[in-house]
Write a structure and sequence with these properties.
The structure holds two protein chains of two kinds.
Chain A: H1 3-10, H2 17-26, E1 36-45, E2 49-58, E3 61-66, E4 73-79, E5 85-90, E6 94-100, E7 105-112, H3 116-129, E8 153-154, E9 161-162, H4 175-184, H5 190-208, H6 210-221, H7 227-276, H8 279-284, H9 287-329, H10 331-338, H11 340-376, H12 380-385, H13 389-442, H14 449-491, E10 512-519, E11 528-535, E12 540-544, H15 551-558, E13 566-571, E14 574-575, H16 581-585, E15 588-591, E16 600-601, H17 602-606, H18 615-624, H19 628-633, E17 641-642, H20 651-665, E18 669-673, H21 681-695, E19 699-703, H22 707-712, E20 715-720, E21 723-728, H23 730-735, H24 740-758
Parallel strand pairs in A: 12-19, 12-20, 15-18, 18-19
Antiparallel strand pairs in A: 1-2, 2-3, 3-4, 5-6, 6-7, 8-9, 10-11, 10-13, 13-14, 16-17, 20-21
Chain B: E1 20-24, E2 30-34, E3 38-40, E4 44-47, E5 56-61, E6 67-73, H1 79-92, E7 95-107, E8 110-117, E9 120-126, E10 132-134, E11 140-143, E12 149-152, H2 160-169
Parallel strand pairs in B: 7-12
Antiparallel strand pairs in B: 1-2, 2-3, 4-5, 5-6, 7-8, 8-9, 10-11, 11-12
The chains are: A alpha+beta, B mainly beta.
Chain lengths: 759, 170
């Protein structure tokens, strides 16, 4: 192994603090002069309980210790000279590492996936120490980090695993940071925001100026019976009203536009990011979940930005301005009336903590409900066919009720909070009337009826924004939850992106090579194992094998819907990972078993891969696909709409449209996932004819079930359990007496004979 | 096996408009002459794109529905044949042009459009919004429950009230 020197050079002790940490514990166990080389911690103790054990390698032995107090208890050890290999056994949910000697296997440590990366590294280092290592077994070599592919990692803060399709730990994502991030998104719009805030300050200040005006009215104008003064005060109040109305309306318009704009940008960003994510992401998420991110979460964020965010700022400003007014009029009364404020703040702070959980809870239930709907509705045919309507109803009802319960629970908590704070606030107006009234009656200088009235005005205006601010926590919570979800999508790194120096291949020959390709959707369970083959340009290959053998997977890898875990897929001699994804897929045409038609006209669907195609091109492709004639039978011809799932077309028709799509795209590499479902023989003949025309001159991979298709193939590749078991022409494979292909054909023949006899 | 028979032509036959001539027989059926040798009687005309490009891509079919060929543009024909073709197309494809929308209401799971068209006033029943199709050029096509088409001109060619009623439905 070429990495041998590398590993020995690479492991300075500084990288392994564990080595230093456990050295004192092992002092008694190590022989004099014995040198500690590698140490790694496992999270299980043999045979199978959770706990800490250390795998240690010295220059003399490989051993395992458990840290029982100060004195380690030795469980296993093997002299280094005897160890010939370290082998990993993948169990379900845990992994066992064994040391193999010439005559036995010694279980060393057992651990969960959380520790796998570290232990893989350590095992690699120990392998480098072995005196006489056995050649590595292929499966044992669980592919180390391939091209920076993200493996499951762990959050540096809480240690919880972070799934490989995400780059942040959700639990450690701080709510304040979330909101901050959200506010940062408003950055490019700083201009309008500042204008709006200035407008708000002007409006609030002017509005509050009514309180001193009223005091003046009650204390000076009315007792002096000054009509002129009255007119002035009235005019001033009217002026203030006009001013606040105009400024308020303008500001509201500005902020609404801004909120919409910010959300519009966000929604676009989420959608375009979703398009960039690999299929792996879609394998792991339900469609409903993803749809919710794009629509409802961004809407929640919009509410936050248009409404909550500006209210927060304005309310805070209002509070400051009111406090300034109050203290300038009477510091004593001001203090008295503001006593409940800290209590209210304290309560809301405590309350904030609880609400996040409550909203999140309700939120999850909502998502679950949506996921169920988007899962069941498209499959309603199956539901009806199996008469499971009742059960589906019960399932829906359960989730629907869960959602209701969650909302009722949230409402209950909020009701209790709102009423209590309302009551506390009411106490302060009582205090003003009580103490202020006492001061006025006693004739304490500086206190007057006007002052009391003005104060009541201000207190009323003080608690409204304060209560609003605490009520706002609700919206902030909602927004934080939504933001968390949206950012989760945005933070998901696309698992497949063009390498910086990726090649642009405008035209290819269509030569395909698989070099020792190993791949699994779940890395621990490879679907393809060391698959190698070489296809010449223009060759037609039939992929044959029982279901689950890896036929579709092979095709997924050619299209680079997924990246291989080991080995490489070459197109025209280039690793597909070195080719721009777009440029690769432009050369590939796919005719799927279940062709997906988008909501749109037939013409649009045929031209899906080449929007610039002319109508003539489209019709020529349709004609070659034997689709033209049936299309013209629709009253709306090529303008006919096909539903969300092309529901108005039969399976055979859908397939021919998808063949036309592929013909129009004119790809060098063609992939046919042939339908298993039987269509009537005339349709079948038409489809076959269309496929023959399509295949001509292109490198073709056909997952074929029809023997007729297989006969046309230049070569067949027979897959079984993820391996290539046979490869050759139709005739060659048939002549193999005990061949896998021969067996499949015989089986097929028996079946069709049975049908013929039965029919 | 069917597949062993000579395959149907896989190429789109596009007719040279200079060679195409259309006549009518005594039964008012269309006769198609292509060049001097070929004569088809009667022929059917089919629009490939009846909504988006009604005057382009017309397919001629024989009595059994086999395609004889396609005409790229109606306007390429000489005036006499063109008139026959246009008359025939107008006959086959009933399409009323909407002049005014008097009312739109929903009830009984359908949408009722009270329209004034160039063919006279009519109350049109439309199943759902998917039967109200905007075309790329701004026209809107209604398909009623019986499959008849009603063409609404682009919004700026409608009167104010009709436009408002339509916009609510879009």
């Amino acid at each position: 192994m070429s990495g041998k020197e590398h590993h020995q050079r690479g492991h300075a002790n500084a990288e392994f603090p564990l080595l230093e940490k456990i050295r004192p514990n092992l002092a008694d166990v190590l022989e004099p002069g014995e040198e500690l080389q590698v140490a790694v911690e496992a999270d299980m103790v043999l045979p199978g309980s959770f706990g800490v054990s250390w795998l240690v390698a010295t220059d003399r032995r490989v051993a395992v210790f458990t840290p029982n107090g100060k004195v380690p208890h030795t469980t296993t050890e093997v002299p280094l000279s005897q160890v010939r290999a370290l082998r990993k056994r993948e169990l379900l949910g845990s992994v066992l590492l064994e040391a193999h000697t010439d005559d036995r296997a010694v279980p060393l440590i057992r651990f969960t996936e959380a520790k796998e990366e570290a232990i893989d590294q350590a095992a690699e280092q120990i392998r480098a120490l072995l005196v006489d290592p056995l050649p590595e077994e292929e499966e044992d070599q669980s592919a180390p980090e391939e091209r920076g592919r993200k493996k499951a990692s762990h959050c540096p803060e809480c240690g919880k695993p972070i799934p490989r399709w995400m780059s942040v730990c959700l639990d450690c994502m701080n709510q304040r940071q979330l909101i901050l991030r959200l506010i940062k998104r408003a950055g490019p719009y700083a201009g309008p925001i500042i204008v709006s805030l200035v407008m708000a300050i002007l409006a609030v200040t002017a509005d509050l100026a009514q309180a001193p005006l009223q005091k003046y009215l009650i204390d000076s104008v009315i007792p002096n019976r000054s009509l002129q003064g009255l007119v002035y005060v009235m005019l001033a109040i009217l002026g203030i009203r006009v001013f606040t109305t105009v400024v308020g309306a303008a500001r509201q318009l500005l902020m609404s536009w801004l909120g919409e704009k910010v959300t519009y940008d966000l929604r676009g960003e989420v959608y375009s990011h979703l398009q960039r994510l690999g299929l792996r992401y879609y394998d792991q998420k339900e469609t409903g979940w993803i749809m919710d991110r794009v629509t409802s979460d961004t809407t929640t964020l919009q509410v936050f930005m248009t409404d909550a965010m500006q209210r927060t700022v304005i309310n805070a400003l209002t509070l400051v301005i009111i406090a300034v007014y109050m203290f300038s009029m009477s510091p004593l009364l001001a203090l008295l009336s503001l006593i409940p404020a800290p209590i209210v703040c304290l309560m809301s702070a405590r309350f904030m903590k609880r609400t996040h959980t409550i909203w999140h809870w309700a939120y999850r239930r909502r998502s679950r409900l949506f996921a169920l709907l988007s899962n069941v509705l498209p499959g309603v045919r199956v539901v009806k066919a199996f008469t499971q309507e009742g059960r589906e109803h019960v399932r829906f009802d359960e989730r629907s009720r869960d959602y209701m319960d969650a909302n009722v629970n949230a409402a209950r908590v909020f009701a209790a909070f709102n009423r209590t704070t309302g009551f506390v606030m009411a106490l302060s107006s009582l205090a003003i009337w009580g103490y202020g009234g006492y001061l006025v009656i006693k004739g304490v200088p500086g206190n007057s009826l006007g002052l009391l009235v003005a104060f009541m005005q201000l207190v009323m205006r003080f608690y409204a924004p304060l209560q609003d601010l605490t009520g706002l926590s609700q919206q902030v919570q909602r927004a934080a939850t939504a933001a968390q979800r949206v950012f989760e999508v945005l933070d998901t790194a696309p698992d497949m992106e063009d390498a910086p120096e990726a090649l642009d291949l405008p035209g290819i020959w269509g030569e395909i090579e698989f070099c020792n390709v190993t791949f699994g959707y779940d890395e621990r369970r490879p679907v393809l194992k060391n698959v190698s083959f070489h296809i010449r340009p223009g060759e037609m290959i039939g992929l044959v094998g029982p279901s689950g053998a890896g036929k579709s997977t092979t095709i997924n890898l050619i299209c680079r819907f997924y990246d291989v875990t080991g080995g490489a897929v070459l197109v025209d001699g280039h690793d597909v990972r070195d080719i721009k994804i777009d440029s690769l897929r432009q050369q590939i045409g796919i005719v799927l078993q279940e062709p997906f038609l988008f909501h749109g006209t037939i013409a649009e669907n045929i031209a899906y891969g080449c929007p610039e195609a002319t109508m003539e091109d489209i019709m020529r492709a349709a004609k070659a696909a034997n689709a033209h004639d049936f299309i013209l039978k629709f009253p709306e011809g090529y303008d006919a709409m096909v539903g969300e799932r092309g529901a108005r077309l039969s399976g055979g028709e859908r397939q021919r449209i998808s063949i036309a799509r592929a013909i129009l795209k004119n790809p060098r590499i063609l992939i046919l996932d042939e339908a298993t479902s039987s269509v009537d023989s005339e349709t079948e003949a038409q489809i076959r004819e269309a496929i023959d025309r399509l295949v001509h001159g292109r490198t073709t991979f056909a997952i074929a079930h029809r023997l007729s298709t297989l006969q046309n193939a230049n070569r067949l590749i027979v897959l079984e359990k993820g391996r290539v078991v046979e490869m050759g022409t139709h005739a060659e494979l048939l002549s193999k007496e005990d061949g896998v292909f021969r067996r499949l054909v015989d089986l097929h023949r028996q079946l069709s004979e049975a049908v013929a006899v039965g029919g | 096996m069917l597949s062993d028979e000579a395959p149907a032509s896989s190429d789109l036959q596009i007719l040279d408009p200079r060679k195409v001539r259309l006549e009518r027989d005594d039964f008012q059926r269309l006769i198609l002459y292509v060049g001097i040798e070929e004569r088809y009687q009667p022929v059917r005309v089919v629009r490939a794109l009846p909504l988006s490009q009604p005057d382009r891509w017309i397919a001629f079919q024989d009595d059994e529905g086999n395609e004889i060929g396609m005409l790229a543009r109606v306007s390429d024909l000489e005036p006499h044949s063109r008139q026959h073709l246009e008359e025939e197309l107008d006959l086959v494809y009933l399409k009323a042009k909407v002049q005014e929308i008097r009312n739109v209401a929903s009830g009984h799971g359908m949408i009722h459009w009270d329209l004034v068209t160039d063919l006279g006033p009519r109350l049109v029943y439309v199943r759902d919004r998917s039967d109200v199709r905007p075309l790329p050029d701004g026209r809107i096509v209604l398909t009623d429950v019986h499959g008849a088409k009603y063409e609404i001109p682009p919004l700026d060619q409608l009167d104010e009230r009709s436009r408002q009623r339509l916009e609510v439905e879009m």
